Structure formats: C-alpha cells, structure tokens
Amino acid sequence: MASRPYSSPRISPSISALTLGLWLALLLLPRPAAAEEGLFNVHLSLGAAVLVNDAADDLIRRAGPSTALQVDLPLHRFVAPQIGYSFIYLPGTGGAESGVHMLTLGVRLRLLNDEKGYLVNLWPKAPRGNPWGNLWLEVEVGYAHAPTLSGVSSWFALEVGVGYELSLAGPLQVGPYLSYRQVFVKRTMPAFVCLGVSISFGFPKRLPKARQAPSRPRPQPRPNIVGRRGDRDGDYVGDGIDKCPSTPPGAKVDENGCEYVKGKMVFPNLRFVPGTPTLAPGAIFEVRRMAEIIRSHPEVKVEIGGHTDEPGSVEDNLKLSLKQAQVVRDKMVLMGVSRSQLTVRGYGVSVPIKRSETPEGRRANRRIEFRFTVGQPKAD
Predict the structure, then answer these.
(1) 264-374 adopts what CATH topology?
(2) Widest pairwise Cα distance in the chain
(3) pTM here?
C-alpha cells in the first residue's frame, strides 16, 4: 500500500499563547485536600469506537473495541493535568487488521466534584459518604500511530472526552463516558466516537484532615462542697441565683449566696510554694472564693496584703510578699474582678500573728490578708 505524504497542521501563535497562559493559570491554582481523589489518579476506559469518516484506507470501513489508560495529578479539586494512552482496534477486510495508538497529554477538568466520600468502602481508608461523584471533561493532544493506514507514523492527535463517575465503592469510581478522537493526516482526518465505561482509582489516598472540636478545659472540682441537686454548695441559695457557688459548708451567706464579710479575711488554704510566688496546689479554689465575694459587691475596695515568714533579709521578704499579693490580684482579675477594686501591698515579716519558733507559727505567718478599705458590706 502506497504511503501518503504527511504535513503537520499549523498552529497559530495566538492559540499557542492562549494554551501557555491556561497552563500557567492551572499551575498557580491552590490544591486543597479532596475526599475522593488521591495524590494521583488512574483512569481505565473500556468501550467501543465508531468510525465517523474515511480512515484513508479502503480496507478499513469500521472501528471496534477501544481502551484507554490515563493518569492525572490533581493541582486543584477541579483541575488536574494528565497523560494518557489509548488504542482503537480497526477490523478490516482481507486480513487487513490494525489499530490506532494515541499517546496524549492534556488536562482533566472536574466540572462538578462532590467530595463527600463513597457509598460503600472496599478499602478501609476510603471515606464513607454518598454515591455522587464528579462530572469531568478532558482535552488532550499528542501523537498517533497506525501503520496500516499510512506509512508515516508521526501524526497529530486530538481527544475530547466527557463523563460522569459515581462514587459507589471506595476507592473506585465508575460511570459512563463519551469521547471524540481525531487523527490529523494529509487529505483525510480519521475521526472516532468512543462510548463506554470509565473506572477511576485514586492512589495513594489523600484523606481530608478531620476537624477536631476545640478542647475545653475540664472544670476543676471545688473542695469541701457538700450540696444537693440545684444547690451545689449547700448554702440554701439555688444555683440559678447563687453568685458565689464556691461558698464552703457552714458559711453565713446573704440572699445572693455570698459570705458576709467584715474587717479582714484570711483563708488558711491560700498558700504558696515556700519561698516562691507560685500558688500551691488547691490554693486557686480559695482565690476563686474571694473573687466571687468581691464580684458580688462592686462598691467595695479591697487591699490584698502579702505576709511572709521566710529566712532571708527583710528586703527579700518584702519583695516576695509583694509578688505573692500581685499573683493573687492577677488571678482575681482573670476571674472577672475589676482591677480598680484591688490594691496590693507587701508586708514581708513585719506583721506576724504568731511566734515563729514553731513550724505551726511560721505557717500561720505566711498568709494573704484581704482587708476591706472602702464600702465594707455589712451583715444583717
């Protein structure tokens, strides 16, 4: 069979510039995670081809089965460049049987992409979801070869396909497809329409990160509170109106559930790690207790006085006592007390309340005193 001379089609500069611009735009698009896509995806298409015009050979009058294998690399949930190989079998007469081989490069556009997982899972890593998948469109150009049709093997090929794949059984998607494949040869342009089934597999699977609920700090239990339902601190003031829910058992409270106060108040369990301005374990509950009282009386002013009984110079103890008072003030401000109600002062070892010859005496001298200086609330 005589071969026909071949001349490649001419592509205008404007089309080349437009193609280059589209590729640059695709490369710059962001790439989020997708539930039904892998780092790369493999597509297998099986179907039948129909010859829609003259194949440049009198012996070839029709087409037969067609197959295609393509791999795409998602740059975006809607855009993925891909490379593909396809083959169309051409049954002839008189033993003239051949096929068209096409090696192409192009892009797959997912026009609709559900990304909500698969109806059932064949693979544990495939996310469970619904059957809806993606509507895709592909455009590819490249090289075609069919020795029986022409003695020249380098042809220009174009393929345009469309299909819809259902997410039925993860990690596989299955659906129908329709494609048009054109081979450009001098004096004739064999063209084929292919119809069949497309099967896609994403590997390795790239799953979206699960959204974690923001962690909430666990409520710290209040010590020494023995209450009942609706009255946690047992002061006979319901939780709905109790402004001081940390009241210890046995304390006298007003109609708001807050303790009556007078003069100064000292909480024995409000302690610090010896020699430091760090609150000892459990001391924060006593700070909260006092903060609730002050919040319930916005008209008062309170002096937070720090007292120490530590070995060391008078100056060092003054500095330490002031730092301890400041720590208590800062904690109370974080609990909702107005800073304008609070003043701090460090007394060091200048105001002991017991002799310091015994451990019990030294422990009693290390304390925080709350002294009401303005607008002291009164008991009934």
Answers:
(1) 60s Ribosomal Protein L30; Chain: A; (3.30.1330)
(2) 122
(3) 0.46
